[in-house]
Amino acid sequence: MDQPGPHPNWDIAISLLASVLPGSTDYAPNKITGHTRDDWQQFDVEDRDMDEVEDDLLDRCSEMTGPLIVVNDTSYASYTFKRGPYFVEASKLREFAKTFGDRVGSYFMDGHVIIVSPVTGIVVMVMDDGLIATVRGRPALQVLP
């Protein structure tokens, strides 16, 4: 089966990221602005239970509200047909992560993970080499009641 072309949702996902963190151009830590070396903390992804790692990440996303953009390895990987960015309601993020393997066939935390909350302006980035950063940008969306 042929690989599809670029996912159609990348443009809007990158545009929202750039609205939250102006100057950001892609979902890779070196293309995301607004963070410094001091923002990165150790985040053991190797020697802990993977569910514990996942729970730790989800706890760090607890202030996020509204629609989120979630990018992980399956967003880019050719073995999953480059699924593109995921759009998830913040209140459903835990369920999304915990059932990800059943739906997609890959562990949610396999590789880099970047989660953007355009409503709160919070971006959480995990690098698969054991680092995590939480960056506070500017809110870019408003959810009406």
**Weakly predicted, low-confidence segments:** none
What global shape is seen? globular
Cα gyration radius (Å): 15 Å
**SS-derived structural category:** alpha+beta
Order of helices and strands: HEHEHEHHEEE
The fraction of residues in strands falls at 15-25%
Profile the largest sheet: 6 strands, antiparallel
Total DSSP E strands: 6
- Order of strands in the sheet with the most strands? 1-6-5-4-2-3
Instruction: Quote the distance from N terminus to C terminus.
Output: 44 Å
> Helical percent range?
25-40%
What is the overall pLDDT average?
A: 89
- So how many helices? 5
Structure summarized in a few sentences:
With 145 residues, the chain is of the alpha+beta class. It has 5 helices and 6 strands, in the order H-E-H-E-H-E-H-H-E-E-E.
Describe the structure.
This protein has 145 residues and is α+β, with helices and mostly antiparallel strands. The chain has five helices and six strands. It has helices at residues 10-20, 50-60, 73-76, 93-98, 100-104; strands at 40-42, 67-71, 86-89, 113-117, 122-127, 131-136. The protein has a six-stranded antiparallel β-sheet with strand order 1-6-5-4-2-3. Strand 5 and strand 6 (131-136) form a beta hairpin. The termini are far apart. The relative contact order is 0.24. The model has no long low-confidence stretch (mean pLDDT 89).
Layout of helices and strands:
Elements: H1 10-20, E1 40-42, H2 50-60, E2 67-71, H3 73-76, E3 86-89, H4 93-98, H5 100-104, E4 113-117, E5 122-127, E6 131-136
Antiparallel strand pairs: 1-6, 2-3, 2-4, 4-5, 5-6
